[in-house]
Amino acid sequence: xxxxxxxxxxxxxxxxxxxxxxxxxxxxxxxxxxxxxxxxxxxxxxxxxxxxxxxxxxxxxxxxxxxxxxxxxxxxxxxxxxxxxxxxxxxxxxxxxxxxxxxxxxxxxxxxxxxxxxxxxxxxxxxxxxxxxxxxxxxxxxxxxxxxxxxxxxxxxxxxxxxxxxxxxxxxxxxxxxxxxxxxxxxxxxxxxxxxxxxxxxxxxxxxxxxxxxxxxxxxxxxxxxxxxxxxxxxxxxxxxxxxxxxxxxxxxxxxxxxxxxxxxxxxxxxxxxxxxxxxxxxxxxxxxxxxxxxxxxxxxxxxxxxxxxxxxxxxxxxxxxxxxxxxxxxxxxxxxxxxxxxxxxxxxxxxxxxxxxxxxxxxxxxxxxxxxxxxxxxxxxxxxxxxxxxxxxxxxxxxxxxxxxxxxxxxxxxxxxxxxxxxxxxxxxxxxxxxxxxxxxxxxxxxxxxxxx
Length: 454
Ligand code: PHE
What we know:
- 75% of the residues lie in helices and 0% in strands.
- The protein has 454 residues and is mainly α.
- The protein has one domain: Hydantoin permease, CATH 1.10.4160.
- It binds phenylalanine.
- Residues 25-26, 28-31, 229-230, 232, 235, 237, 323, 326-327 line the site of phenylalanine.
């Protein structure tokens, strides 16, 4: 049965499909490799508390705001702001979101490529019996080889483009319904495995022990800044996904469920990773180092390490794919809605364009290594800095201001009422989106931009 609205826009078939797709967008590398590490660094349990507060003060309210804008207009971000904003200027927020999604996907897909590479490596049991030095070298080889980088970057984007080109039902919803439950299942298995490893006490301590002395102003701002990337907010992916949502679904409950899932996965990822890292007395490190050097060393000696390595990289690949899908959909939806392109054409052309745009990032560890943009930062890291520190918070701020101050109370209340939430929750949300969220984001933003130094 096809559920369509008057202009035959595909809508999510079920609420579960929507929640899985939005959680699929949110759950990604942000949760799996950044969150656990940052948590450990900034005081474990105490940081988790601050993070939870920022999800309530920034994350959930902005996600609700994006859903309101999306469902109200049934449009991509550019079209949505064009329709709701009384002046043309607001459309720029949509454009900013589109640009953010485009740039983000171009380098996210390079990392997605490394992960696919590692899924294959682990499937072939390549870490087994190798020394730590040999394993470290493997990742250096990946980074150093331009062809390999470009090939896997292309493969990752090919998969993403294929799924997006199939449409909301047969592509995005279907694949999220398959990949997300698999991700949850495998992650739980890996967690049980970790809980039985000897390093479990130390690992849990690193992650959860509330060391309030580490809760400095920097830690608080870091926690607040963490609210954007892992939740996929601030650029309009949730406007886009919200635009395919049926009228009777509660936006507040949905945003809460998605944020809870996202946070749980981040915590479970920490529980999977740190006990085994500590079991082998290795130093916990961040990002690429942890995933492609430290963990494979552990896997190479762990009992059952071959299969665990494979399952682990599979989970990461699923998480990265479902996030990347939402990024491409954000861009593609614009061309479908506003330029009247067919979905296949939009997906293929944009997939290709983003691939080409991402090639310099793929080459920024080898051929283009010497090109540094600012302060010795290569192209890949520069784009990441630009997106996470500036574009996402700026977008989030503008979305909050728009929804809180420019969208009429009647319009936002109407969307909230449709899902059956009562006036009390609406009032709390409106207060947060008007006052708390903008101030919090401004603080983070000025700190990241160096306006306030700590
Ligand atoms: N939330 C994703 C992650 O944690 C990244 C992402 C950001 C995806 C913004 C879509 C939009 O990896």
